[in-house]
Amino acid sequence: MELDTIAAISTPMGEGAIAIVRLSGDEAFDIGAKVFRGMKGTTMKEFATHTIHYGHIIDPDTDKVVEEVMVSVMRGPKTFTREDIIEINCHGGLVSVNKVLQLVLKHGARLAEPGEFTKRAFLNGRIDLSQAEAVMDLIRAKTDRAMNVALNQMEGRLSNLIRKLRQEILETLAHVEVNIDYPEYDDVEEMTHTVLLEKSRHVRDEIDKLIRTSEQGKILREGLSTVIIGRPNVGKSSLLNSLVHENKAIVTDIPGTTRDVIEEYVNVRGVPLRLVDTAGIRETEDIVERIGVERSRQVLKEADLILLVLNYADELTHEDEQLFEAVKGMDVIVIVNKTDLPKEIDLDRVRGLAKEHPLVTTALLEEEGIDELEEAISSLFFAGSIEAGDITYVSNSRHIALLNQASQAINEAINSVEMGTPIDIAQIDLTRTWELLGEIIGDSVNESLIDQLFSQFCLGK
Ligand code: GDP
Ligand code: ZN
C-alpha cells in the first residue's frame, strides 16, 4: 500500500501543557530532517529508532528558530501506525504548535484527516476494528474508570472473546457440512442436531452475557445519572456547585444543559457522575410546578442515583415525605443540609424514612460534609454490581447493536433446529451470526463503514 506522509496536532490526554505534532509515513524522517536541528548539528536521519532528542525547529527558508522542542523518532514497523513516526513535542502553546504544523505541511506532509493515524494502524494490520474504536473511546473517556474499560478493550479482550465465538460457530458449521455431505449415516444427523443446539446455545449465552455488560459500560462512559431533589431552598444548587468545585467538572461533548434542568459532569473519586439539578435555572421554584409532574417523574425514573436534600433548619414536611415515596426502590443518598443553623428537623424520623439508605449531614455554605458525601457515593458505587478489573465491558453502541443482532440471528438458528426445519436454514442464521460478530472486529466490513468510523476520531489520532 502506498500511503503519503500525514501530520496533525496530536494533543495528549489531560491538560498537559505540551502539544505534539505527529508525522507518520515514509517521508516523516526526511521532512523532520528539513525542519529539525539537534544539538551539535546532529540530523534526524542519524537518530536510532525509539529515541528522544532535544533541539529546535527551524524554518529552512529563513533559518529562524520557530520553537524549542523534544523530538521522538520511531521507525516502522514497531510503531502505532507501523509507519515511520516522528513526534515533535512543543511547549510554547497553541500558536507555536500551529507554526510547527504549518512548517511540516509546507515541507511535504499532508494534514491528517480525523482518525487517520488510527485508520492507518488498522489498514496496516496493527490493530483490529474494535481496538481502533477503543482508541476513539479512550480519546473521549471522561474518567479514569472509563479509560480502563477502553484500555481493556484495546488490549483486545473483546476481540479475543469474539474470535473464540466465531471459531465455535465455524466448527459448528463444519459439523453441519458433514451431515450434508454424508446424509447416508443416520446417527450423523442426530449428532449434528445435538451439537448444533448445544454449541448455538452456548454462543448465544456468551453473546447475551456481553450484552448485559453494556449497561455498565454505558454508565462508565456517560456517567451515573444523578438527580438532586429536594424542596425549594434546601440547598440543591449549592450541592451541585460544591460537587462541581471540589471535583473538576468534566468537559464533555455530550449535549449537557437541557432547557428544564442543569447538568454537570464530575468525577467523584473515580465515579463518573452526570449531575442533574432539577431546580436549576430559576431558584425557589418547585420542580413539579415548573417542569410538570410527568417530566419530573421521567427524570427520576431515568436516574441511577438520587441525592435527596433536606433542610436541617426546618421541620420535615409532607412534601419531604412524598419525595421519599417517589424514590422508593432506587439508590438514594439522603443529605441533611444547613447543620450550621439551629436544628428544627427530627433526625430520628429522617432515619426512619431513609431506612437503609446512607445519610449524610452537610453545611454546604461552610463546605462541611462534602468529604463524607463523596465517600458515600463512592462506596455505594463500588459496592454495587460494577467492579473494576477483569470483566470485559461492551460500551460501544455500534458493538451493542451488532451483539443484539447476532443474538437474534443465533436465536433464530436455535428455534429452527428445535422446530425440525431443514438444517440449511440454521446454517444461514449461523453464518449471519458469524458475520455480525465479525463486523465488531472488522473482519467483514466494507470500506465505507470503515471510512465512516474513522471520520469520528479526533484530529491527530
Ligand atoms: P435550592 O433551591 O434547593 O437549589 O437551594 P440553594 O442551593 O439555592 O440554596 C438556598 C439558600 O440556602 C441559598 O441562599 C444558600 O446560600 C443557602 N444555603 C445553602 N446551603 C446552606 C448551608 O449549609 N447553610 C446555610 N446557612 N445556608 C445554606
Ligand atoms: Zn437551586
Descriptive keywords:
seven-stranded mixed β-sheet, Small_GTP-bd, six-stranded mixed β-sheet, Four Helix Bundle (Hemerythrin (Met), subunit A), Rossmann fold, flat, 461 residues, Gyrase A, domain 2, 16 helices, 17% strand, alpha/beta, binds zinc ion, binds guanosine-5'-diphosphate
Structural write-up:
- This protein starts with 5 loop residues before the first strand and ends in a 7-residue tail after the last helix.
- It contains 16 helices and 13 strands.
- It has helices at 28-35, 93-106, 116-123, 129-140, 144-154, 157-181, 186-222, 236-246, 287-291, 293-301, 318-326, 347-354, 370-383, 397-418, 423-441, 447-454, and strands at residues 6-9, 19-24, 36-38, 51-59, 64-74, 85-90, 110-111, 224-230, 262-268, 271-277, 305-311, 332-337, 359-362.
- Helices cover 48% and strands 17% of the residues.
- The model is unreliable at 249-260, 279-285 and 385-390 (pLDDT under 50).
- It folds into three domains: 6-128, Gyrase A, domain 2 (2-Layer Sandwich), CATH 3.30.1360.120; 151-219 and 396-434, Four Helix Bundle (Hemerythrin (Met), subunit A) (Up-down Bundle); 224-383, P-loop containing nucleotide triphosphate hydrolases (Rossmann fold, 3-Layer(aba) Sandwich).
- Helix 6 packs antiparallel against helix 7 (186-222).
- The chain is α/β, with parallel strands linked by helices.
- It binds guanosine-5'-diphosphate and zinc ion.
